Amino acid sequence: MDISALQRARYEYQPKLPAVLREPIATIVMEKGGATEPMTDKEAIKALFPHTYGLPAVSFAKGSETGHAKRINVGVILSGGQAPGGHNVISGLFDALKHANADSKLIGFLGGPSGILNDQTLEITSEIIDAYRNTGGFDIIGSGRTKLETEEQFAVCAKVCHSRGISALVIIGGDDSNTNAAVLAEYFLRTNAGIMVVGCPKTIDGDLKNEFIEISFGFDTATKTYDELIGNIMRDANSSKKYWHFIKLMGRSASHIALECALRTQPNVCLISEEIEANATSLTEIVESITSVVAKRAEKGLDYGIVLIPEGVVEFIPEVKSLIAELNTLLAREASRYAKLAKWEDQSSFVIERLSSANAQVFSSLPTDIRKQLLMDRDPHGNVQVSRIETEKMLIQMVEARLSQRKAEGTYKGKFSALNHFFGYEGRCAFPSNFDADYCYSLGYNAYLLVANGCSGYISSVTNLTSHATEWKAGGIPITMMMNMEKRHGEMKPVIKKALVELSGAPFRYFAEKRDRWALETSFVFPGAIQYFGPAAVCDSVTKTLELESSKR
Ligand code: FBP
């Protein structure tokens, strides 16, 4: 197979491990902390997780020789959207497993969680793993969005694991997948299945974090990839001085990606969904605020600029959120009748006739393309697929319309020529940055130690991440302590709380302090491409979000 020079060079990269994980594996011992509990809904969660509730947080330390590890088979699953570093989680897990006992086996389930239900596997050998070390993507075994959540599915998982002699599963996923990992761990304990489950925190969205999970893997590389692209566009805008660029950035709900990119590149405008929701800012107000920045820059002769838009913003704008909620119910309820309508005009009037008058009015006020996108197929949970809604185009059209009005009123004399971009998939499979390569390898290595120490229902936790990797701390926390009860499909369910951007948090406050200056002046910063080889200050830096968050720890 032909490979790039960078891929070949990355094979040679030795990920940095926390000092404790560099010790001979048989000398690493587990230390238990105090009992844990979730912040809220303690009784409800305790009742649902009698075997995994209240377990202690654990950490690893150097001890004395613990003896030869027994031979085991571990299964691994990649779940959900791709995030740079997944291959390194598997490499770290593989290396630890083999260091402990060369006869142990790592079995990958193919295509995500459906791989275990369909019993599709690949035994990961050193030849296979060596071809994926320090590379992006999830293609070593593939990923998928099937959810493991019913007792019938759990029974199939147990059967497949038993038939393959698998006594532990490592599930690499986001908040939903780790929630399901905890439910599966509890099921295996309740049914004496003899199979452990350990989770690993993944998602470029950065919304799986708390005191013990400082960052989900992939966020670092994905944002640095977008930073490079935004910086390049900024320099282009600065050179030709003739375009406004409206750039939508991935992030299903939370605006962490947009905020991080804003902190790094200093655009003229960056919308933050959480702030829009907190202030109940309407679509008209959002358009007005962007229009006013465009007009003020035009007064200074600056007919160009950069606007960053988080992917999920439409679901945080009060009137659009209400419209989407009613559309979700309506399209689910009227699915068969709606499916018979082939023409857009018929689909549009079908929906308008059935919506409440307020929502029908909002729907009709939106550009046609956006109305069509709002009616597109739902995801498996019945939700709008926000990555397919072209909010960036919608905002351009609406700002353009508002600027024409202003022109007629004589309050705007500039030229507005806008281009739209969407950066999402571009960043999910990039070669992991040194940070993600090191972090992911450590998470995987650490996951094996959790397995070896019988920590079922735990998530791999590597912390102190703004220090040099050798000073990182390795351990695990019970997933139940990260849970709360939320309504899902009309029922109260235990779920890991999604971490949205905190408006009182250091990253947002830093942004809020600077944004007025960035709006009118041209303060662009050009971060350039991720560097893999060179001085640590260039190659091993962490995200601005992590840096600001950790300064208050
Ligand atoms: P995960 O939460 O599974 O990591 O995925 C996040 C994400 O990358 C979002 O940013 C985006 O909205 C979504 O996946 C896109 O999903 P898909 O890959 O199914 O198009």
Describe the fold and architecture.
The structure is a single chain. The chain is α/β, with parallel strands linked by helices and 553 residues long. The protein folds into three domains: 33-218 and 432-488, Rossmann fold; 221-311 and 390-429 and 493-553, Rossmann fold; 315-389, Arc Repressor Mutant, subunit A. It has 22 helices and 15 strands. It has a nine-stranded mixed β-sheet with strand order 1-2-13-12-7-6-3-4-5, sandwiched between helices. Helix 7 (175-190) links the parallel strand 6 and strand 7 (196-201). Helix 8 (219-240) packs across helix 9. It is globular. The structure holds 1,6-di-O-phosphono-beta-D-fructofuranose (FBP). 1,6-di-O-phosphono-beta-D-fructofuranose is lined by residues 80-81, 83, 174, 203-205, 250-252, 311, 386-387, 428. 1,6-di-O-phosphono-beta-D-fructofuranose binds at residues 80-81, 83, 174, 203-205, 250-252, 311, 386-387, 428.
Sum up the structure in keywords.
553 residues, alpha/beta, Rossmann fold, Arc Repressor Mutant, subunit A, 9-stranded mixed beta sheet, 4-stranded parallel beta sheet, 22 helices, 43% helix, globular, binds 1,6-di-O-phosphono-beta-D-fructofuranose
Please tell me the total number of domains: 3
The major pleated sheet works out as:
9 strands, mixed
Radius of gyration: 25 Å
Strand residues, percent: 15-25%
CATH architecture of the largest domain: 3-Layer(aba) Sandwich
Number of strands: 15
CATH topology of the largest domain: Rossmann fold
Bound molecules: 1,6-di-O-phosphono-beta-D-fructofuranose
Helicity level? 40-55%
End-to-end gap: 47 Å
Number of helices: 22
Mean pLDDT: 95
Name of the CATH class of the largest domain:
Alpha Beta
User: Which strand order do you get reading across the main beta sheet?
Assistant: 1-2-13-12-7-6-3-4-5
Structural class: alpha/beta
Q: Which spans of ≥5 residues are poorly predicted at pLDDT below 50? A: none
